[in-house]
Amino acid sequence: MEVGLNHFLIVSTILFSFGLYGIVTRKNAIMVLMGVELILNAANINFVAFSSFGNFGINGQLYALFVIILAAAEAAIALAIVLNIYKTFSKVNIDEINNLKD
What we know:
Elements: H1 5-25, H2 29-53, H3 59-89
Helix pairs in contact: 1-2, 2-3
């Protein structure tokens, strides 16, 4: 059995679904960030798979590298915000932190 484009798309769809489920159902900020990372990894799999099977050259790998750099910056900034929220409110539950408007 040969691994084709459909296999990569199925794995990417599963990762995207898990990420979306993590964002929608979780109240913990860290779990929401993990869901965002899963969605970005699903996009990376799509970029590389279409680049490999669609004869687009190296463009898919370059986009995936850009997304990895973007995800690292997003994780660093988001974790800094989460740590600041934890220091201020002693919790990281997203639903309970609406005092930031004040």
